[in-house]
Write a structure and sequence with these properties.
This protein is an alpha/beta fold. Helices cover 40% and strands 15% of the residues. Helix 7 packs parallel to helix 10 and helix 10 (241-250) crosses helix 11 (275-292).
């Protein structure tokens, strides 16, 4: 059986690219708490969390004994008047410097936040999306980086029909996010069984079903649902995490299992308290599943 790789993500500490997304904790504290829990790898987090300059970013992670995984990168890939490649190329320079291997690509709408109305694409628009994904795949491959497409609430790729467009129109693998798949209307257990070979990266989070339904039905904004605890530590929500992780491990999945519980932090937590407690619970639960499937 392949070695199982586990990583952390700054969003589990409330660090997010969306403006006004609660209190933003410092890299020093977040990375130190990841270390304290026993993580030795992390995603980069949003632009501005770690230094932009590639060497400085690599040094920051090295100082905390953290391997760079890569991370979530939202890009506008549907607009015929916008070329996403220059921004991607700049980001890949940091990947090369830090030794990161996974670009988690999200198809941003071009509007901040995940509650704005999404543009609708015609066939020509989807051709642009697929063509840009192919270009990004080529640019990343030239640097030895894998691209994982992240279907995500409030982006251009969210619903089952949109996920199918990508499955059928490109060769890109997926970042399998247990929460965003579910909220977008894709059954995560079914997806992992049918498309195991198209999953190269995993974001693990659990979901409170009642809050997810309120987002799906338009009764609650996505941000408000996150504040209300829509995302839960592994094992404390309604997603069949055991089945999903077990299926991937038995299939020989060799990507990263990233613990990525989106959360909003109101203010600086007391020492030893706050997001670290939920991250500890998730890590303990995941470790137990892994041991049961060895």
């Amino acid at each position: 059986m392949n070695n199982v790789k586990i990583a952390a993500a700054p969003i589990s500490w409330g660090v997010c690219e969306v403006p006004d997304w609660g209190h933003q904790m410092s890299p020093e504290r977040v990375l130190a708490e990841m270390q304290e829990l026993g993580f030795d790898a992390t995603e980069f987090g949003p632009e501005g969390f770690l230094p932009d300059e590639p060497a400085a970013r690599a040094e920051t992670l090295e100082r905390h004994s953290m391997q760079a995984v890569g991370g979530f990168y939202p890009a506008v890939i549907h607009d015929p008047d916008h070329d996403p490649l220059p921004g991607i190329e700049r980001e890949l320079e940091a990947y090369t410097a830090a030794g990161a291997d996974t670009l988690v690509l999200a198809a941003a709408t071009g509007v901040d936040g995940y509650d704005a109305e999404r543009p609708e694409l015609d066939d020509a628009g989807w051709e642009i999306v697929c063509r840009n994904i192919d270009r990004i795949l080529a640019a990343a491959k030239a640097r030895g980086v894998t691209v994982s497409l992240h279907s995500h609430v409030g982006t251009m790729i969210e619903t089952p029909a949109e996920v199918d467009r990508i499955l059928n129109g490109t060769d890109v693998d997926f970042c399998f996010d247990t929460g965003h798949m579910f909220i977008g209307g894709v059954d995560p257990v079914e997806f992992v069984r049918k498309h195991t070979g198209r999953i190269s990266h995993a974001h693990l989070k659990d979901v409170a079903l009642d809050r997810a339904r309120s987002v799906q039905n338009g009764e609650q904004a996505y941000y408000d649902a996150v504040v209300d605890g829509m995302y839960q530590p592994l094992g404390q929500g309604d997603i069949d995490i055991d089945s999903i992780v077990g299926t991937l491990i038995r299939a020989g999945f060799d990507g990263w299992f990233t613990l990525e519980q989106d959360t909003v932090v109101a203010d600086e937590p007391a020492s030893g308290a706050g997001p670290i407690e939920q991250a500890r619970a998730s890590l303990s639960y995941l470790t137990k599943i892994i041991e049961e499937n060895r």
